Amino acid sequence: MNTIALVQKNSLPSLVQKELERMILAGDLVAGDKLNEVSLADMLGVSRGPVREAFRALEEAGLVLQEKNCGVFVRQISVEEADEIYEVRAVLDELIGRKLAATIKPAQVQELRTLLDRMDGMVTLGDIDGYLKLNLHFHDSLVQFTANKKLLHTYRRLVNELNLFRRSALAQKGSLPTSTGEHHKIVDAIANGDAQAAGDIMREHAVAGRKRMHQAQVQAAAGGAVAASN
Fold first, then answer.
1. Same-domain pairing of 35 and 83
2. Closest by Cα among 190, 169, 73, 176 to 119
3. Residue 114: C-alpha distances to residues 93, 138, 188 (Å)
4. Are both 91 and 70 inside the same structural domain?
5. Same domain flag for 83 and 68
6. DSSP conformation letters of 13-62
7. Per-residue pLDDT reduced to its tens digit, 18-73
8. Last residue of a domain, one of 21, 50, 74
9. Would the pTM count as exceeding 0.85?
10. pLDDT of 181-211, one tens digit each?
């Protein structure tokens, strides 16, 4: 899409929001980073107003936190809070799997399988960032296919809040093939119209994601201890 068409289709604050969201999800802006309104406005070539509006939208999405008299920061959550999010997400994932098994259309199944093919390619390449982007797209598509706007809004916020931990979890040896294998099972169950299996597999996928998060935290702590002793 060229620049003129892009601006015609989106408001300026929306474009700023999308770019900042991209930077956060890509890791260019990491958890705990302070976001400077003036610097970002200069970098993006806009006034401070659209950046300020984008901050509000990003806070609503769960990606940033505005602290009075301190500024705006990329959202940083604790492992304990992440556990709570995974607990809620597991319930929602089970609901999504059950709903889609009863309602999904053949074209939507094909769209998911096309995404899986691309994810498999990222696994082969060992491209964690490429896989992460497609993984987010895959799960977002599942929720969109339920046609439940409230569910989509709630789910997206939970996913955004887990961004701090997602990449480190998938970076562990063997995590990418395991994760994509779980995705294939999800799509197969949904395509077969098996609501019980689809719900169970999606719930188990969320539980497995939680375990990978904890494993990554243990490995990071061990690595930090080794570095401190050297």
1. no
2. 176
3. 21, 10, 13
4. no
5. no
6. HHHHHHHHHHHHHHTSS-TTPEEPHHHHHHHHTS-HHHHHHHHHHHHHTT
7. 899 888 877 788 888 999 999 999 999 999 999 999 999 999 888 898 898 899 99
8. 74
9. no
10. 999 999 999 999 999 999 999 999 999 989 8
